[in-house]
Amino acid sequence: MFETLLCTEAARRRYREAPFAAERERYLRHRADLGATRASLQFMSRELLWIVRLLEPDAAKGVDMAQLQELVQRRTSMHRGATTAQRTIVTARPWLRFLGWWRAPETVSPFQDLLDRYVAWMRDERGFSASTVKMWRHQVGMFLQWCATTDRQIGDLQPSDIDQYFVVEGAQRWSRVTVSGIASALRVFLRYAATQGRCDSHLADTIQAPRVYQQESLPFAPDWSDVRRLLDDTATDRPRDVRDRAILMLLSIYGMRSGEVASLRLDQLDWHNHRLQLFRLKRRQPQIYPLLPSVAEALARYIDIVRPPTPYPQLFIRLRSPRRPLTPSGIYHVVSQRFRDLGIQVAHRGPHALRHACATRLVAEGLTLKEIGDHLGHRSASTTRIYAKVDLAALREVGDFDLGDLP
Fold first, then answer.
1. How does DSSP classify residue 154?
2. Tens digits of per-residue pLDDT, 130-146?
3. What is the mean pLDDT of the chain?
4. How far apart are the C-alpha atoms of 142 and 185, rounded to whole Å?
């Protein structure tokens, strides 16, 4: 790597003779494989040269935050730049982590073992989706952290303790829906803890959550004219627009969830038979759709022109280094930023708003709720019933029903 990044033999010799040359070169090659530009690699190589000159010879045994801070202080004492400390940290830590030399600070929790076993139970025995495991791990982890901070033991918990948690942590912060979701997560966790003999078996049943009525709200869907504005805004040759156009089409035409778009792979596109095979997260089974010409064109244009070369099978990849697959949160950012840029006023700016827009449009076109539920990959017809609220034509027919002379 030094031969391609450095222009003179004297510079190459200086970089090769500095400590940890092989480790630095291996890391630079790794970053190049992830799509780092030549300028970025040159910046990293210069920063790493400073770092290794200050690094202890036994760094392979591990470097923690205190040692890194000491290195930063030594560096800033020699070069008092405004961004010197930040540059040193953002370069050193990823390099040390890549080598396996970084000792991340550990948060010691007396309940960590229980939380780890609970996560394994959710994932391996119950088969919960990755998003559910992640969300419930976070919610339960926050509760256990509160227990540790307030010196409460799981085995000694009383209903009043759990009430206190909601009062202290949730006041002025959590909505009614959020409180209900956290209460459900804690009930499942405490039932699991009871099976492990860690708490009273009746504790979970004492958790009271606010009532959330099924289908009490309207779907937060933007008007279809706004969806068209989003798509029209991406009708350019800019790489980001080409990629985002394909994403927006999948969300708004097929009603895909953000996780389904993020996990979509190249081998799920059947170009020969013009089919798209999805794996619906809630149904946990594949579902085959016709690959519409407009969507096929957008996907092919992204793959042929924009998608960077990468070993990942996922379809949508970051346009900047590191070239990794987009995550569901990355898909959310794509959509929300588009809503903001166009000034479209909508209750929620995320990908699910486009899923609702898809369903609302299908209702307007006269499809039955069963057909809409099948298109969206719903497990139950009850999930689709909420869209009956936006079927204004059918609601007018009900409102105009003449009871005649019936008493």
1. G
2. 778 889 999 999 999 99
3. 84
4. 11
| DSSP tag of 304 | I
Alpha carbon distance 238, 338 (integer Å) = 14
Q: Which of 157, 158, 177, 179 is nearest to 168 (CA)?
A: 179
Asked if 296 contacts 274 with a C-beta cutoff of 8 angstroms, the reply is: yes
Burial (0-12, 13-18, 19+ Cβ within 10 Å), 83:
exposed
pTM: 0.67
Task: Examine the pLDDT at 392 and tell me if it is beyond 50.
Answer: no
* Mean pLDDT, residues 58-68: 89
Please state whether beta strands 269-270 and 285-290 pair in parallel, antiparallel, or not at all (unpaired).
Answer: unpaired
Closest CA to 60 of 86, 98, 112, 32: 98
CB atoms within 10 A of CB 175: 10
Contacting residues for 126 by C-beta, under 8 A, at least 6 apart: none
Mutual angle of helices 84-99 and 38-54, in 10-degree steps: 90
Average pLDDT over residues 351-363: 84
Task: Give CA separation, 182 vs 96, 146, 235, 374, 403, in Å.
Answer: 37, 14, 42, 30, 46
CA dist 18 and 25 (Å) reads: 11
User: What pLDDT digit, counting tens, does each position of 2-60 carry?
Assistant: 778 888 888 888 888 999 999 999 999 988 888 888 888 889 999 999 999 989 888 88
Nearest to 243 by CA among 293, 329, 316, 328: 316
How many angstroms separate the CA atoms of 317 and 327, rounded?
Answer: 9
Task: Please say whether the beta carbons of 263 and 279 come within 8 A.
Answer: yes
How many beta carbons lie within 10 A of that of residue 404, not counting itself? 5
Half-sphere exposure of 335 (CA within 13 A, CB side): 30
7 CB-contact burial (10 Å; exposed 0-12 / middle 13-18 / buried 19+): exposed
Eight-state DSSP code of residue 59: G
What domains does the chain contain, in order, with CATH numbers? 2-99 (no CATH), 112-206 (1.10.150.130), 224-395 (1.10.443.10)
Contacts of 208 (CB under 8 A, 6+ apart): 183
**Pick from 309, 302, 376: which is nearest to 334 by CA?**
302
The end-to-end CA distance of the chain, in Å, is 90
